[in-house]
């Protein structure tokens, strides 16, 4: 707890690194506490983050117990968990009251355009097109990501462009 006291003095002075040290020290315990109170892991993570955000925001008025903010954090996690659970309950009730959609027709994606042509490419050519053309990564970074040589990226990209160009020409002709 001596570590808490020294870190807390730095947090009060506005040191975010000290807050990170407190987070690293207490996050696991707070997460376990939140998991006992909530059903969704994501909500438990949110409750912990909210508690540390509030600790930072209210650092001038937080009262320590035996030199540690842990009791305050546990209480704040409990309050956040209750709020998250209440919000989730309201959301589920709202969804339950929502009217059923009038149309039972299933809407499917258009399979006649560029995306359909892209989906028809072999997976290794698709991944090169997605990384280089759609996401804008340079050839070298795409090669590192895929674990292949840069030359292979370039040749797959050339083949994919040819296939896509042919598919678009056929589509325009029809």
Automatic annotation (TrEMBL):
Q: Ranges for the RNA polymerase sigma-70 region domain?
A: 22-90
**A Pfam family matched by this chain, by name?**
Sigma70_r4_2
Q: Which GO terms describe its biological process?
A: DNA-templated transcription initiation
| Entry-linked InterPro entries | RNA_pol_sigma-70-like, RNA_pol_sigma-70_dom, RNA_pol_sigma70_r2, RNA_pol_sigma70_r4_t2, RNA_pol_sigma_r2, RNA_pol_sigma_r3/r4-like, WH-like_DNA-bd_sf
Keyword entries, A-Z: DNA-binding, Sigma factor, Transcription, Transcription regulation
Domain RNA polymerase sigma factor 70 region 4 type, chain residue ranges per copy: 114-164
* Sequence intervals crossing the membrane: none
- Keyword Coiled coil assigned to the entry: answer is no
Give this protein's Gene Ontology molecular function annotations: DNA binding; sigma factor activity
Cross-referenced PANTHER family, in alphabetical order? Answer: RNA POLYMERASE ECF-TYPE SIGMA FACTO, RNA POLYMERASE SIGMA FACTOR HI_1459-RELATED
Family per record: Belongs to the sigma-70 factor family. ECF subfamily.
Protein name (database record): ECF RNA polymerase sigma factor SigE
Which organism is this entry from? Microbacterium terrae
């Amino acid at each position: 707890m001596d570590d808490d006291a020294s870190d807390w003095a730095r947090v009060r002075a506005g040191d975010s690194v000290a807050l990170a040290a407190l987070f690293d020290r207490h996050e696991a315990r707070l997460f376990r506490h939140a998991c006992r109170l909530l059903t969704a892991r994501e909500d438990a993570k949110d409750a912990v983050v909210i508690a540390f955000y509030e600790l930072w925001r209210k650092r001038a008025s937080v009262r320590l117990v035996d030199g540690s903010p842990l009791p305050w954090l546990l209480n704040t996690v409990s309050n956040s968990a209750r709020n998250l659970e209440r919000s989730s309950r309201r959301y589920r009730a709202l969804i339950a009251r929502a009217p059923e959609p009038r149309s039972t027709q299933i809407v499917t994606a258009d399979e006649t355009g560029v995306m359909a042509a892209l989906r028809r490419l072999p997976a290794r050519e698709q991944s090169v097109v997605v990384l280089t053309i759609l996401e804008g990564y340079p050839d070298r970074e795409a090669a590192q990501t895929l674990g292949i040589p840069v030359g292979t990226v370039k040749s797959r990209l050339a083949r994919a462009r040819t296939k896509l160009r042919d598919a678009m020409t056929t589509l325009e002709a029809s």
